[in-house]
Design brief:
This protein is of the alpha+beta class and about 180 residues long. The chain is built from 6 helices and 10 strands, in the order αββαββββαβαβαββα. Strands 3-10-9-6-7-8-4-5 form an 8-stranded mixed sheet. Strands 1-2 form a two-stranded antiparallel sheet.
């Protein structure tokens, strides 16, 4: 079996008592911010689907109005424990970055506006919450599990995707957002 794997170009490494298989071209750079955040890079040329959603405060947010900014879109729900746990780190990330170059949006399919407002107040978190009542935006971003976070580059292209909670205020995350703000891509 090991010979067959070698013919396919796989490398076999022994790590303690475990075998680790790697495919050529899929090596992960430990210094790459996407890798350190366990965030998937999305294929180049994938345009973010435009959307228009109403926020908790009643304002309408249109993705096209955010062109030229890095946009981090976090899909969450009040019933999702990991979602609620990562909210403070999202708020701290937002506070560290220039609002002229970075926008954080949270999107929920929950319809209980008062419950969401109470949760944010209890958590001491001030984040924009958008309502995806028909789940059209969640479907267009292929949200299958919560939390799911999508990173959109200033040119409107999808850059990355993370499923599951993250420490969004980590140095790696802040560095990635700043790198994207500076590069414009």
């Amino acid at each position: 079996m090991l010979k067959r794997m070698a013919r396919w170009g796989m490398r076999v490494l022994f790590c303690g008592t475990s075998l680790v298989f790697t495919l050529p071209g899929l090596a992960h750079d430990p210094h790459d911010p996407f890798t350190s955040l366990k965030m998937s890079r999305l294929p180049a040329g994938s345009q973010a689907v435009p959307f228009e959603l109403t926020a908790l405060d009643g304002t309408v947010v249109k993705l096209r109005d955010l062109a030229g900014k890095v946009v981090l879109v976090n899909f969450w729900a009040t019933w999702c424990g990991p979602c609620k746990e990562e909210m403070p780190s999202l708020a701290r990330l937002q506070q560290q970055l220039d609002p002229k170059k970075f926008v954080l949006l949270t999107v929920t399919t929950d319809l209980q506006r008062q419950g969401i407002a109470q949760f944010l107040a209890q958590a001491g978190v001030a984040l924009p919450v958008l309502f995806d009542e028909d789940q059209d935006v969640s479907r267009s971003f292929m949200v299958r599990g919560l939390p799911t976070t999508v990173l959109i580059a200033p040119d409107g292209m999808l850059a990355g995707r993370a499923v599951g909670p993250r420490a969004w205020d980590s140095p790696e995350s802040v560095a990635l957002m700043r790198q994207m703000m500076e590069s414009g891509k």
